[in-house]
Design brief:
Chains A, B: Pfam families: HIT. Chains A, B: Its EC number is 2.1.1.-. Chains A, B: It is an enzyme of class 2 (transferase). Chains A, B: One of its GO terms (molecular function) is methyltransferase activity. The structure is a homodimer of 153-residue chains. With 153 residues, chain A is of the alpha+beta class. Chain A has one domain: HIT-like (HIT family, subunit A). Chain A has helices spanning 15-20, 60-81, 127-152, and strands at 21-27, 30-35, 42-47, 85-90, 100-105. Chain A has a five-stranded antiparallel sheet with strand order 1-2-3-5-4. In chain A, a hairpin with a 6-residue loop joins strand 2 (30-35) and strand 3 (42-47). At the A-B interface, helix 2 and strand 4 of A face helix 2 and strand 4 of B.
């Protein structure tokens, strides 16, 4: 239950996030998405809270759910990709709807050691590439969310 | 108590973080710092956990403490500055020691709408300016940490 009785039913995804990314899956009140950019494995978590703009202003139960989602997503990306670094953040200077970034980074990727935000032009993937990238993340994330929820139950 | 009996006594600050920023204060197992750059109110939280590099690999009690610190810091910066946006993140591509960023952003600041990481040259402050910036953050943060800890007690 939400502190403020807000529900995902009243929520819709920002058009720019919709255009730039594809759904991985929804879990609870979170939508996990993949940015359509071949250069980086770049994921998003969007809490489906209408009007949410900043993490620190989310109701505490929503914030805890988002942070648990970030933990599961981070564990999944580490397991799948063995990155040199995960870059996580809530920026939102261009899209005011709250979304958390979690990006797989390598010392030889095209933006290293800089950040991915504002780094060059995105390279859209073909549908088959998108699917191949999304499928293992979805499978791993489902496992991680279930495992972590058992651990805290 | 730490999950792994690690204590801040075994910890020391990364030389680059030490050179780039000044202490606001230590609270529990967290060190709050201010980046020495006149252009942005740019704060850091450094969990004093020896060897910590990534947020998702911190022991859960340390991670919860760091995230509670980020919440108190965000509330403080919002109260003091009324920013258009707070940018928060864990990047660490240049400094492997775990540190969380929390940056006050305005639509007319020198990096907007881009991010502050990698944006131009830092402008160091004079000691009196640093002090004037640190003092209200320290006071507000002390209040926010006490208030939030009562709320969850």
């Amino acid at each position: 239950m939400s502190d403020d009785h807000t529900t995902p039913a009243d929520w819709c995804l920002h058009p720019r996030l919709k255009a730039d990314s594809f759904p991985i899956f929804d879990h609870g009140r979170l939508q996990f998405r993949l940015i359509n950019d071949r250069r980086f494995v770049w994921t998003l978590i969007v809490p489906m809270h209408p009007g949410a703009e900043q993490l620190h202003r989310l109701p505490p139960d929503w914030r805890n759910e988002a942070l648990a989602g970030l933990q599961a997503l981070s564990e999944t990306l580490e397991y799948l990709y063995h990155p040199d670094r995960l870059n996580t953040g809530a920026i939102g200077n261009l899209v005011d709807q709250l979304h958390l970034h979690c990006v797989v980074r390598f010392g030889d990727d095209p933006a290293w050691p800089g950040v991915v935000w504002g780094a060059g032009e995105r390279e859209p993937m073909k549908p088959i590439e998108l699917l191949a990238r999304i499928q293992p993340i979805a499978a791993g994330l489902g496992d991680a969310l279930a495992r972590n929820s058992e651990r805290t139950a």
